[in-house]
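In this supplementary section we document a worked example of the pipeline. Step one takes a protein sequence of length 212 as its only input; no multiple sequence alignment statistics are reported here. Step two produces a three-dimensional model, which step three serialises into structure tokens for compact storage. The input and output of this example are shown verbatim.
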Amino acid sequence: MTSGDSHSLTLTQVLERHWRALIHETSTSEAAFAAEVRAQYERLVPPHARTIEWSQHDDPVMRMRRDSERISRWFREDVYARFPVEALEAFIAAFPEERRWALQQALATRQGLLAVRIPEGGFGADLDNLGRIGKETGEAIVAVSRLLEDGKIDGRDAPLARTALLEIEQAIAVLAEMRERIARQALGAEPAERAAAAEVVPLARERREGPR
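The serialised model returned by step three reads:
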């Protein structure tokens, strides 16, 4: 799904498109997906905040089938029950990893954002720096894309140029901070400038010029 496709659909339609693609393009059944949504819902939503009435049938197969019918009704325009906000996180979490990532990217695009994966291990200074890299580079991309609305950068883009340059500088700053962190914390006490001169620059030159 392209960003244009995402913006031309309602939020519910985006969710439905990804759900139907999962069902039709993989071996995942509607019942199996519903069981995973229910499991994620019960994991993520505290008991006192739950309003969705999942099936209580004694037969597990019938229980899964009825839950899948409930989810299907969330996407039917002729049914009053619309997609419940409280189930959104559980619905997304029920997707396999790569398809979940594709859905998260589509949802982020609708908000004018770039999705960035945060490594496992919890938040810390390094992960905070990574998050700022995603934010600043995303804002730089948006600023530059405005210059390229007509397919090129020229004198007519002067009114927007300063903003684009500022965003690029801010992105460079957080990238430089991460470079310093990697050099200091992964390579020892060697200054980042020395590490960059010894390793990064020749590698970039080799990629640009090709092997000799």
